[in-house]
Amino acid sequence: MTVQPLYDKDFLEAASERSRLSIEREAASVSARRRALTHLLFDGGDRARVHGAWRDLIATEGFRYRPGLSPAERVRLAYSRLRLVNDAAGDAAELAFDVRRLSALHEWTGVVDGGLCTLASIHYNLFLGSLLDQSAGTTGRDVSEFTSMRRTGTFLCTELDHGNDAAALGTTAEFDGETGGFILHTPTPGAQKFMPNTSLAGGPKSAVVAARLLVEGVDQGCFLFLAPLSDDEGRVPGVHVRELPDRTGTPVDHCLTSFDQVRLPREALLEAEHGRLDQDGTLHSSLGSARKRFLHSIGRVTSGKLCMSAGTLGMARAALTIAVRHAHTRHISGPRLGERVPLVAHRSHHGRLLDATAMAYAMTFLHREVVSRWAGHTAENRAETERLVAVAKGWISWQARAIAIESRERCGAQGLFPANGISDLPSSIEGGITAEGDNLVIWVKAGAEMIFGHEVEHDHLPHVPLAERSLSELSFLRALLVEAESAAQSRARTALRRGPAGDPLGRWNAASTPALEMVSMHACRRAADAFIDAAARAADPVARTLLEDLCRLFMLRQLGGHTGELLADGRLTADHVRAIPDATTEVIAALAPHMLTLVDAFALPDEFLAAVPIASGGRIGDEEDTWSAWHLRGSGALEPAAR
After folding, report:
1. Minimal CA–CA distance to 574: which of 589, 562, 563?
2. Spatial contact of 319 and 425, defined as CB atoms under 8 Å apart
3. Global pTM?
4. What 3-state DSSP class applies to 203?
5. DSSP class of residue 561?
């Protein structure tokens, strides 16, 4: 009897085929899982309309990293890219009214050029949006030179003396009864407009200028005026511009700008229901106070907050994608002699990146929810929605900075090189933190309103003994976030009531710390709600499990600093508190094998990633012929002339 080999040729070929098919099936499954996640992250069935043009745009050669450019050259490049954006935008006026596409524009362009992200926000939202929103008094205002970008638009509001208190600005626009026009003037050095992009870079420019309307010497409040700044020959007479020093982050042509008795025509005033001026200078307004008229005039700042948070969100996801891809291709010495293991094999490395991944998903889902709420807001819920936009902007951009810094560090020295696509991102995010309302200031305002103007809705969970509640239950973790928010609000209310009588600032100082904590927990809770909802909508069961695990990790991390108060209030048991570290470790272990899938779902274009060395298996120093040229020189193989 002949004994056949255990693995004969036919068997091995069949096994190889089965293995190949298994690998192909697994690859198809991973691909389907990634598509399911991308679908949820990027507006579902509306993805192509909202994100498609901008994603395609940054995949093109015009948006690749350009080494060796001076700050001035980088500014000129940003303006040339702004024109490419305009070519891809379709109808620029429609874009200004479509907050989903408008914020998505920033989400993608910020990845490749923070300066472009800033310029796009100013031109399309603050300038063109304000112009279109407030043209009721000028029938058929022609904006074609701005939508075609024959002229670039900018926005002049904040001043050297007035930033977040822009309602106190000093620039004036005096009504001239004889001509029916206005005289735009900067009366003091502190009234110079601070940081607008008003240099001659980028071609002819016009500005929407916030100024105090004076009629026969009477202050009527602040309104917006359309003013030309420059043309093909240079600056308009009476407009004075001084370029500011370079700042951190991607360069923008920030300037100080002032006006010396610049005459504007009657149609320069942007009018709507908040204010119309008769030919004789009589003001008619549907709003009862100058402050309300001003806030209405600069209403585009709210959609600007969505744009800024979108820009920082896209930057954070890009930084994280680069870091995770690098962690899988960078190998270091393993525990055994001669062994090499990828960075991602270490819990100390992948745990931090998974924390950032969970946060990035939470930020994305929150942003989608807030954009939808703003797009569908009504007059009745406008104030509440504006506050939510402000809260989300602060939370998203602060978390984006933390993710970008963590991601850069996890890339080591390679992360310091701009060519690797990550080193500029933290400083670019800083610009988003300050723009459209400094984060802390807008949170202070939100906190002051929410101490008594917001009621936390407590969960009504099924009656289960507390000791039997599990840290794996999303509903239980979500309820704990609600309790943490409520506890912070209670402490703020108590502090405000106990504050020194007759001292409003003293009372607020006593309440501000818990009030800001309340705002932070409110943002976390809203993000958790959006996250849980997204997971429930996942059609792919594995994708749903991944999202639930990520959401669990996100909430466990957010609760970490509140366990003492929750324990004291009887919301957690001592066993729960002791179990949180192990619960966190378990979910990280479950997610670790899926890190690439999770970041690949961010859908950064292959062309972009291929141009980033550490995102595509390379590194700075691996350039072709670097080693061979050095080696040949060292061996003497090169002729002296070639050296």
Report:
1. 563
2. yes
3. 0.92
4. coil
5. G
User: Is the separation of the CB atoms in 136 and 271 below 8 Å?
Assistant: yes
Interatomic CA distance for residues 628 and 643, integer angstroms? 13
The Cα–Cα gap between 555 and 471 comes to 10
* Residue 76 CB burial class (10 angstroms; 0-12, 13-18, ≥19): middle
As given in the structure block, the two tokens for residue 613 are: 């060395």
Distance CA 15, CA 110 (A): 48
Phi/psi for 210 (5° steps) reads -85, 125
SS3 377: coil
- The residues facing 332 across adjacent strands are 341
Residue 580 per-residue DSSP state: H
Beta bridge partners of 222: 212
234: which strand partners? 231
Confidence band of 22 (pLDDT split at 50, 70, 90)? low
CB 460 within 8 A of CB 281: no
- The C-alpha atoms of residue 239 and residue 261 are separated, in whole angstroms, by 9
Burial class (CB in 10 A: 0-12, 13-18, 19+), 9: exposed
| Per-residue CA distances from 417 to 46, 67, 317, 422, 508 (Å) | 36, 10, 18, 8, 45
Letter for the amino acid at 476? F
Amino acid type, 555:
M
pLDDT digits (tens, 9 = 90+) for 335-347: 999 899 999 999 9
Closest CA to 147 of 132, 133, 160, 135: 132
